[in-house]
Automatic annotation (TrEMBL):
It comes from the Archaea. Keywords: Ribonucleoprotein, Ribosomal protein. Belongs to the eukaryotic ribosomal protein eS25 family. Residues 1-40 are annotated as: Disordered. Pfam families: Ribosomal_S25. It comes from Pyrobaculum calidifontis (strain DSM 21063 / JCM 11548 / VA1). The lineage of its organism: Archaea, Thermoproteota, Thermoprotei, Thermoproteales, Thermoproteaceae. InterPro entries: Ribosomal_eS25. This is SSU ribosomal protein S25E.
């Protein structure tokens, strides 16, 4: 019975001082993080020029995944999937393995 004990006045004063000091420290940490990590830009639409570049580069690789294309060219993963599927439909790539989340392609060797 009785409930939770209330803090004393000195405890309340100490807690208030700590709260005043912490936001200043946290702000400085947040500012440092923002400065360190510049925002990455991803391409949402694909030019024909970039598509042709990807088509040429893919032929020299052993295996190709959408993640490799997305990170190398700075495009979205969904766009990388579309590019690889278009290259497959065109006959430049062969689908080797397909899972729930990713697809693995190899270049078609003539």
């Amino acid at each position: 019975m009785g409930g939770k004990k209330r803090p004393t006045l000195s405890q309340l004063a100490k807690k208030a001082e700590k709260e005043k000091a912490q936001p200043q420290q946290q702000k400085s940490k947040k500012e440092v993080k923002k400065e360190e990590a510049p925002a990455k830009r991803t391409i949402q639409t694909l030019d024909e020029k970039v598509f042709q570049t990807i088509a040429k580069e893919v032929q020299s690789l052993k295996a190709v995944t959408p993640y490799e294309i997305a990170t190398k060219y700075g495009i979205k993963m969904s766009l990388a999937f579309k590019v690889l599927r278009a290259l497959r439909d065109r006959g430049d790539l062969v689908l080797v393995a397909k899972g729930h989340r990713t697809e693995v392609y190899v270049p078609k060797r003539s």
